[in-house]
Design goal:
Oligomer: single chain
Strand content: 5-15%
Largest sheet: 4 strands, antiparallel
Strand order of the largest sheet: 4-5-1-6
Structural class: alpha+beta
Number of helices: 11
Distance between the termini: 36 Å
Order of helices and strands: HHEHHHEEHHHEEHHEH
Radius of gyration: 36 Å
Length: 341
């Protein structure tokens, strides 16, 4: 015998009638959900955001770059295999984990868009942040039991921060994100803040410090070599000048003396002078080559997208949040009505 399968048909019209019969319940739940959700999301401060796209100069020929792009699509990174650098671009986002890099932003001067705030970024994060409204009483109670803090000091040890300084550093890490795209080799810097102008200011500061870090790292060995050859060149130049003065003084003092021993001594001094001059010119050539190497190792940066002052806040999305809560309330009320019937 064939089993007869009963198909359950959902009657939309019947469901609509049942829900419409309980319209008074919706008239109660939806306004309450609207007011509560709006008051809730209103308590969150608004944030602005901006982003920067930066393309640093990378070593390698166009062919290797093409192969690298092709390999990255399969999950391989040829640049890491071919690069002699200890710090590859993939590690740039990890700079935000370093206290030294983060605390370098403490003394950046920031100014709000309306001009009411003009201070350091550290002071702005510590004293001028708008809190979540319902967290104010909780924070007030916490401050009652907090030990008195000493006044601000001019020097901050990045790797020995106090609790307050570590909190400020953590706030900076939450606001700033650095990302590197392996396929396009583009560095993206994203910044969010409660003030639009400060958002742009910090974005420019992070970009500048990232460029300085990359340049300093890429040229560190070349600069060390240049400073070494510069020191040797200056010493060789001083030795040459002293030897030339001695030779000149000896030659001037004995212009009318025709002694073979004196001639031999002058000849030895002349040979020594020539050796010192050769050493000086050789070191000067090496110093100039090291100087050119510094310039060669200095990377160029192309700003694909610069930081701009955002016009509209990006979060929280108040209307979207309220609409979502209303939709959720409608669905929950409908489920409650249909389940009871």
């Amino acid at each position: 015998m064939e089993e007869k399968k009963e198909l359950k048909v959902i009657d939309i019209i019947d469901i609509s009638k049942k829900l419409w019969a309980k319209k008074k319940l919706f008239a109660k739940t939806l306004p309450i959900a609207f007011v509560v959700s709006y008051l809730y999301i209103l308590g969150f401060p608004r944030y602005y955001s901006t982003d920067i796209k930066l393309a640093p100069e990378l070593g390698g020929t166009s062919m290797s770059s093409t192969l690298g792009s092709l390999a990255s699509s399969f999950g391989f990174d040829l640049d890491n295999l071919q690069s002699n650098d200890a710090i590859t671009p993939l590690l740039y986002p990890d700079l935000m984990e370093d206290n030294g890099f983060v605390t370098s932003l403490f003394n950046v001067r920031v100014k709000s868009k309306d001009g009411s705030i003009n201070t350091t970024y550290h002071d702005y994060l510590k004293k001028h942040q708008k809190p979540i409204i319902w967290m104010v009483p909780i924070d007030w109670c916490k401050n009652l039991f907090k030990k008195g803090q000493k006044g601000e000091v001019g020097f901050i040890d990045p790797y020995n921060l106090s609790k307050d300084e570590d909190d400020v550093a953590g706030s900076i890490r939450d606001k700033i994100k650095i990302d590197f795209d392996k396929k396009t080799a583009v560095i993206s810097i994203s910044i969010k803040d409660q003030d639009a102008l400060i958002c742009k200011t910090i974005g420019d500061s992070v970009k500048t410090r990232l460029q300085e870090f990359i340049t300093e790292y890429r040229t560190s060995k070349a600069r060390t070599d240049y400073e070494y050859y510069l020191k040797l060149t200056m010493e060789a130049k001083q030795d040459y000048e002293k030897a030339r003065q001695r030779y000149g003084s000896m030659a001037d003092a004995n212009t009318k003396v025709a002694l073979r021993s004196l001639e031999l001594k002058l000849e030895d001094m002349e040979n020594d002078l020539q050796l010192r001059f050769n050493a000086y010119t050789t070191l000067n050539t090496q110093m100039q080559a090291a100087k050119a190497k510094v310039q060669e190792r200095t990377p160029a940066f192309t700003v694909i997208k610069g930081a701009s002052v955002p016009i509209k806040p990006t979060s929280p999305k108040r209307m979207i949040f309220v609409a979502f809560i209303l939709l959720l309330t409608f669905a929950g009320t409908s489920f409650y009505i249909l389940r009871r019937q």
